[in-house]
Every structure is written in structure tokens, then in C-alpha cells.
Amino acid sequence: MPDGRGDEHTLDGGSSRAVGLRTRVVDAAAATPAHRDRYVDLLRAVAIVVVVLGHWLVAAVTVDAGRLGWVNALAVLTWAHPLTWLVQVMPVVFLVGGFANAASWESRGSWGESAAGWVRGRALRLLRPTAAFLAYVVASYAVAVALGADPVVARTAVWAAAMSLWFLVVYLVVVSVAPALLAADRRWGLWGVLVLVAVVALGDVARVVTGRPGAAAASYVAAWVAIHQVGVAWRRGALTRVRRHAWALAGGGLAMLVALTGWGPYAVTMVGAAPPPALSNTAPPTLALLALAAAQTGVVLLLRPAADRWLRRPRVWLAVVAVNAVVLTVFLWHMVPVVIVGTTLVAHGLLPQHDVGSGLWWAWRVPWLVLLAALLVPIVAVAGRWERPRSARPAEQAALTTAAGVVLSLAGLAGLGVGGPDGVLPDVGGIPVGELLLFAAGVALLVGRPRRPTD
Predict the structure, then answer these.
(1) Cβ atoms within 10 Å of 342's Cβ, excluding its own
(2) d(Cα 201, Cα 256) in Å, to the nearest integer?
(3) H or E element: which one contains 69?
């Protein structure tokens, strides 16, 4: 997620105790500088809430012949596919990420921090909470198997809990090259975005011709970088000089989205897989997803005046600060309650299961969501301590060390994201040891002992 507490567009981290977390949230809200762009923080908070509620709503735990399983309700509720245009908010996350990265680099760069030091700081704010999460997941799997749990069920549970790691892979790639992306924006502006859109378009053509999603592998980076660069352009004012730019993005993006999904080869759903022959829009990203991103960007710009007035209310701003203080922790851990409730209450018949989409299924979604929220709150209160920034001062590190740390971390996370619970490399006792070691080595290099710049 957009991170970087300690600069203009970020907030203090969590705590091991709920009382400490509340204290820091109240202090951060009270100390908010007048020049802070509160709207960016609101967008980040709203996006994470939508992601969590969306995943919880469509996650259906099943028990068939005593075997625990997981179903994405969208595979059954095809009528709900157009609604995914509202809940697919990852474009907003990357839009805000571009804005925040530009603001952070402006601030930290003025302190004399190097690009390597900046990347190291941003990467660690992503990787420290992720390391704690992976340690928990691996330990839980090992304990479950030692206690006699079915290894297949345990692996499925681990995959469900860690299904969102793909986002960190892509976002860490973007963060690691952000200084270069900011330089590219200064030189080429939005023309660079058009080049990236062309890369995605060529990938879509290759998918149609070959029938293989892998033919558009470059789109995984090109699409999200394009949206990030739009956020950078927003930060420097390129999208806000006249209001008609916002209307053009909203109207043009929506019209293009309707055309591509109505008459083109693209699936209507913007979340998850799509039935053949329609092109899935997220794996890899497509032109349809970029059209959605354009429409969402326009709406974001149009809603700003009303949102700015709303954010002047102290209670509203306090809520925004509270979510941002643990935003990555919430994102990482939000599927753990689903696993806990699924392997206990649902598996043992204490929470009845019904046909997905039936009236009873929808009725039981209410206690389902309440239970998950009740479990997530104490989890975040405990795990949020890992999201606490270690230092707001600039720290220098050799560029080669930073690059090696990022690459190794990415290799480990990518292996887990592609291979699921088993990883890609050979596992040991069902645990993807190779990927975990790569990740640990990368984090260790980044943590290191950075040099402080001399005054």
C-alpha cells in the first residue's frame, strides 16, 4: 500500500497494544500540518476498507464430504459482475501511490537523501509487516500439520490467508523504480503513460492471438506503472488545471469501458478470473482495467471539493488517521479471520452454509462480516506494531546493497505469489523454504546498518 510514514503523505504506525495505537492516532490527528493533503489519506483509507469488505463478501467457505473448500461467490453470482466496477479499487491505490511517492521524494530529497536510501526506507515499510505476516502463516501451517491437520486443507488455508501477496510484488517493483519514474515524468509527462498503455494494448492482442495470458506478462508492470504515473501527474497539477479534464477522464473512461466489455473481448468482471473466451482483466491487466482506472481518476478529481469539506470534521479525520496508521497490516491480515472462522465454525457446522446466492446465504453474510471484523480488530492491534516506522531521518545505504535486497525480496514474494501455498522452488515438508529464504535474505540486506549522512 502507499506507505512512507514520516513524510508529508503518511501517518504513524501501529502498536502492540490498542491503547498505544489509539494514543498515536489521536496525537497524529491533532498534529496534522495545515499543508497536508488529507484527501489522499481518505482515498487510501476508503480503498483498503472496500478491498477488505469485498474479499469478505465474496469469500464462501464450503464443506463437501468432510473436505474444507473455498469458493469465490463471483463465479456463481454472474449478475454481480458489473458491480465489480465499483469495488475494484486497486487503480485508486496505485493512483494514490504515485501521488504519495512524488510527495515523499520531494520531501526526503530536500533532506539530502539519496535514491537508494529512499527506496530502502519505502521498501522496508512494506517488508517489515510482510515478514511478520509470513512468519505467522508458516508457523500456523507447521503447527496445524503437527497436530494432525490434513496437509492439503492446511495448504489451501495458507493460500487463502496469503492471497493478497501479489499486490506487494507489483507495488514493491513500482517503489523500487519510483525515482526513475519520477524523473521520467519530469522529462516526458503524460506521453510516457501513453507508451505504457500501448504496451498493454499489444499484450492484449498477443493474448487474443496466442490464447495464453503469459503472452502479456509485461502488462503486469506496464499497467500499474501507467496508473502510478497518472498519480504523479496529479501531484504536479497536470490533471487539475481545468475541471473539464476530470469530466473527460470520468466520461471517456466509462464510455471506453462499456465499449470494451460490451463489444470487445474483455470480461465484464474486474475481479478474479473470467470464463473463456473473455479476457480476464487483472491477470494480467488489460485495456479495460485501464479504462476503469481513467474513469475512477476522473471521479476522484470531481469528488475532491466535497471530500475536502467533509475532512474538516475532527471525527472524520480521526477515523482516516486510524485506518492509515495500520493500512498495510489490515491488508495483509484481513483474510486470516476468514481462515479462522472457516476452519472452526463453518467446518464444524456452527456457522451453517447455504447455496451461494440464496436468500439464506445473503442473510448469513451479516453475522459472517461481523465475526470477521471482530477477529480482525485484535489481530491488527497486535500485528500493527510491525508497521511502526523505525526512523524518520534519512539513511544512506550502498545502491548495490539496496538493489540486491529488493531483488531477493521480490524473488521470494513472487515465488509465493505465483506458486501459491507450495511456492515454485522445491518445498520441505510442504513449506516453501526456498522462497522464504530468498525473502529473508533480501530483508536482512535492507535492514543492515545503513550509514547516516554527515551534516
Answers:
(1) 25
(2) 13
(3) strand 67-72
Phi, psi of 451, rounded to the nearest 5 degrees: -80, 145
> Under a CB-based contact definition with an 8 Å cutoff, are residues 436 and 134 in contact?
yes
**Any residues with CB less than 8 A from the CB of 279 and at least 6 apart, and which?**
204, 207, 208, 265, 266, 267, 286, 288
Long-range own/partner contacts, residues 382-385 (CB < 8 A, 24 or more apart): 382/16, 383/14, 383/129, 383/132, 383/133, 383/136, 383/329, 383/332, 383/333, 384/13, 384/14, 384/15, 384/16, 384/21, 384/325, 384/326, 384/329, 385/13, 385/14, 385/15, 385/16
> What is the Cα–Cα distance from 14 to 2, expressed in whole angstroms?
15
The span from the CA of 289 to the CA of 91, in Å, is 8
pTM for the predicted model, two decimal places: 0.87
Give the C-alpha distances (Å, rounded to integers) separating 401 from 130, 348, 448. 20, 50, 9
Question: What does the alpha-carbon distance between residue 414 and residue 409 come to, in Å, rounded to a whole number?
Answer: 8
| Cα distance between residue 284 and residue 219, in whole Å | 6
C-alpha cell recorded at residue 218 = 509485461
Q: How far apart are CA 195 and CA 193, in angstroms?
A: 5
* Residues 219-274: tens digit of each pLDDT: 999 999 999 999 999 999 889 888 899 999 999 999 999 999 999 899 999 987 77
Segment 118-152, tens digit of pLDDT: 899 899 999 999 999 988 888 888 888 888 777 77
pLDDT average, residue stretch 365-378: 94
List the one residue out of 396, 381, 440, 446 whose CA is nearest residue 415. 440
Contacts of 152 (CB under 8 A, 6+ apart): none
Classify strands 67-72 and 59-64 as parallel, antiparallel or unpaired: antiparallel
Poorest-pLDDT segment among 18-22, 120-124, 178-182, 266-270: 18-22
DSSP string, 333-361: HTTHHHHHHIIIIITTTSS----TTSHHH
Looking at residue 313, its amino acid is R
Cα dihedral angle (89, 133, 386, 399), rounded to 10 degrees? -80
Consecutive H or E run containing 63 = strand 59-64
Question: CA 33, CA 446: separation in Å to the nearest integer?
Answer: 31
Name the grid cell of 2: 502507499
